[in-house]
Amino acid sequence: MKHKSKYNLWNKIKSKSIKNFLLEAFTFNSFSYVVAGPIELFIAKISPIEHFKVRMVALILNTILGRPYGKWRSFIFRLYRIKSDSSFLKTYVADTTIFLSFQLPLYMANMALGGCTLIEMLKAGLTVLVISGLFGRPYGIYLDSARKLFGVGIEYEKKAKINSNENIAVKSIKISFVKNQLNMVKNNFLKKKKKLNVGVIAATPVDTQFGVGFLEKKGIIAKGISLSHSPQQQTELQALNSRKLTYKVIDAIAKLKEKGANSIMIYCNSLSGAINLGQIRSYVNVPVVTPLDVYSNIANSKNNFGLIAANCQSTANIERVILSRNKNAKVFGVANLALVEEVENNEDPNSILEKHSLSKISSHLKDSGAEILLLGCTHFTYFSEEYKKCSSLPIFEPSEEMVKLLHKVV
User: Which of 1, 323, 363, 394 has the fewest beta carbons closer than 10 A?
Assistant: First the structure.
């Protein structure tokens, strides 16, 4: 009696198509997680939040594509007359080729939709490519065993009474089916992709408005919250009370989410380095992008960086981020809070450049070996266009790259 009731619920499903779909969705998802989870966490070293996003995307795609994979595998096995008792080499080569051709593009799509960086995707993708030979045949054995266990049989061993012309038609149908499924997933993703609604957090009302205005010019919905009344007050908080500042940011994110924000841009270099970003990202469930993310991404583009920042704390934090990605880098830094205060006072941009000898500073940094000049304060966008005309070095601002990151993660 027990044996008869063991698969009672499964046996109530009369449709063979539904059984095939459910079984292959389960095998595809379970095998994918066992294989891909360790790669993402310990080789690509993506964050837990990214890992969760990737797995959620994978759950959807694997559920949709588990059955097409099974059909594709059966089609190839029938085409080359491979059976479960064929030679090990023949089944190994077939399963490995099928697994790699189907799983690698799918896996890269999973990571891209999960918000991973190009470097993380390449690391994980190359790892899957290298070790795919270990997984193609094991998945084939796992799938065949599951089909036997649940009484649906090994699909490619079922006799197919079709002539050569019908065989060609079947091949065409099966390939079209897979393509249609992939196009459906792609189209659904494009339709459901969220429109950016960005919450801007910055040090003072001035740079907060700079950030909001910058996004609105690009047609992006934005709203902002500033954490201090003046540059001096913000500098004191950054230097003396990082913990308090971190909780102020968490509170500001909560308020911006209530107003509809689906992503956060911290539009302040010095603030980004003074807070505990890891703690913030673990508390909130929206993407948080900062200038430091941009510096991390460009760290290997040069070896010698010039840097002008608002305060020494910011200079040190930007240098730390660059060195964490490029051990050979040198950062030649200058910090001047007076520049920020004069921007806040709406002084003439050319007067600011002349008063603080910024043209000469760029020349000195170039003489020291700098290849590029980072403007490590969002206030400096106020005079950046004028500065580009007289600087001895190409000038880099992180704002444009931050927008690109926002589009990737939302």
Answer: 1
